[in-house]
From TrEMBL:
Major localization listed first in the record, in broad terms: membrane
Organismal lineage: Eukaryota, Viridiplantae, Streptophyta, Embryophyta, Tracheophyta
Pfam families: Branch
Record keywords: Glycoprotein, Glycosyltransferase, Membrane, Transferase
Official protein name in the record: Core-2/I-branching beta-1,6-N-acetylglucosaminyltransferase family protein
Keyword set includes Membrane: yes
Molecular function in Gene Ontology: glycosyltransferase activity
Keyword set includes Transferase: yes
Subcellular location(s) per record: Membrane
Entry superkingdom: Eukaryota
One of the record's GO cellular component terms: membrane
Amino acid sequence: SRLATKSPTPKIAFLFLTNSNLTFAPLWDRFFRGHSHLYKIYVHSDPFSAVQNFPPPFESHLIPSKKTERASPSLIAAERRFLAKAILDDPFNLYFALISQHCFPLHSFPFLYRSLLGDNPLRAFTSQPRHRSFIEILADDPNLPERVGSVFLC
């Protein structure tokens, strides 16, 4: 029924994978402020880590978590849980950003949203034959090697 809405708004799903507190939570809060209709947040917090309560806007977005270990298949399983939750939760989640607890944004939310969806997000949502990654969007940029990774710093 949500797909039949008259004006769907494409969203970016931010998938925070963490085994500690979110180091830059205040910066992320500022990044997201005022754009709640354009994104969704999902947090996978390793249940065996010493993570304290998450501050707004993260506190109510925890997904069921299992133990994860660096460089192990458990991270793939966590990413699969993220994607399943984000896809089932909101069919308008068009892009997915996997972020660790130590990443922080280098650009504003409007810059990121325009970079991914252009000036007409509804048209991008309904007519794009295949959705591209951030790197593919910038593929013709001669400064691409310097720009890769320039949306979030981890």
